[in-house]
Amino acid sequence: MPSLKELRARIGSVKSTRKITSAMKMVAAAKLRRTQLSAEAARPYAAAMRRMMSEAAAAVGDAPGLPPLLVGTGREQTHLVIVMTSDRGLAGGFNANAARAARNLVRRLQAEGKTVRILPVGRKGADMLVRDYGDLFIERLPGSSGKEVPFSAASDLGDKLVALLSANKFDVCTLVYNRFVNVMSQVPTELQLVPLTSGANDDRKAPDAPIYEFEPDEETLLARMLPRNLAIQIYAAMLESAAGEQGARMTAMDSATRNAGKAIDRLTQKYNRTRQANITNELIEIISGAEAV
C-alpha cells in the first residue's frame, strides 16, 4: 500500500496535469472559433470555383491541348497521395484517422498495381507512415502547427504539384485530410486534385443545362484559373484540417480534464482511508501499551 507521502505526491501531480489540460482546452476552444469561421467561409468559394471549372471544362469538351491539371497526363499509373495532418499531438484520433485513411488508400492502389508516391504535410502523419511507407516519400512538409493558415502555404504547395506534374512525377493526385463537421466529428476525406473531377460529361448530357459564354475563351480561362483553383482547393482543405485539429484537441483535453478530476477523487478517497487506517492503528498501539502498563 502506498504511503501518505506518495499519495500526496500523486494527487499533486494529477492536479498539475488537470491545470495543463484545462488550459489547453480553453486555448483550443478559442482557436476553434476562429478556424471554424474561416473553414465555413471558404467552403462556398471553393465550391463555386469547382463549379466554374466544371462549366468551362464542359464547354471545351475533348479539345486537344488541354492543361494537364484538367485532363492529367493521359495515364493513371503513378498516384501521388498528399496526407494532411498536424505537427502537434494531443488531439485524440485526429492524426491517426487521417493516417489510417491514407494507408488504406495506398494499399488499395498498390493492390491495383499502381505506383504510389506520398507527400506528407504535417509532422504527425509523416511519423505514422514513415515506418511502412518511408521509401515512398518524395518530401516532408510542415503543417500549420495550430497557427493561422496563410494562403501562401496552399499556393506554394500548388506550385510544387504543378512542377511535379510538369516533370511527369505523377499522373493522379489525391489529397487525404480531415473534413470538419463539428467539435466531436472530423471525417477523413479523399479529394482528387489532378486531374480535375469536373463532371463535364454529365453537364453536356443534361437537356436543361444552362448555356454559358466565357470571356476570354474557355482554353485561356482554364490555363489561367486551374492553378488558382488548385491552390484554393488545397487552402480550403487546410482550413478544414485546422478547424478539425482544434475541435479534436478541445474534445481530447476536455476528456483528459474530466478523467484527471475522477483520478483526484479516487486518490483523495484512498488517501483519507489510508490516513484513517494509520490513525486507527496508532490508537490501538497506544491503548495496547497503556493496558500493558
Polypeptide structure, described:
The protein is α/β, with parallel strands linked by helices and 293 residues long. 64% of the residues lie in helices and 12% in strands. It has helices at 4-60, 68-71, 94-111, 123-133, 151-166, 200-205, 218-292, and strands spanning 78-84, 115-121, 172-182, 185-194. Strands 2-1-3-4 form a four-stranded mixed sheet. The chain is elongated and about 110 Å long. The chain has two domains: 4-22 and 252-292, ATP synthase, gamma subunit, helix hairpin domain (Helix Hairpins); 42-249, Pyruvate Kinase, Chain: A, domain 1 (3-Layer(aba) Sandwich), CATH 3.40.1380.10.
Describe, in short, the structure shown.
It is built from seven helices and four strands; from the N terminus they run H-H-E-H-E-H-H-E-E-H-H. The longest helix is centred in the C-terminal third of the chain and has 75 residues.
Write the layout of secondary structure elements.
Blueprint: H1 4-60, H2 68-71, E1 78-84, H3 94-111, E2 115-121, H4 123-133, H5 151-166, E3 172-182, E4 185-194, H6 200-205, H7 218-292
Parallel strand pairs: 1-2, 1-3
Antiparallel strand pairs: 3-4
Helix pairs in contact: 1-7, 3-4, 5-7
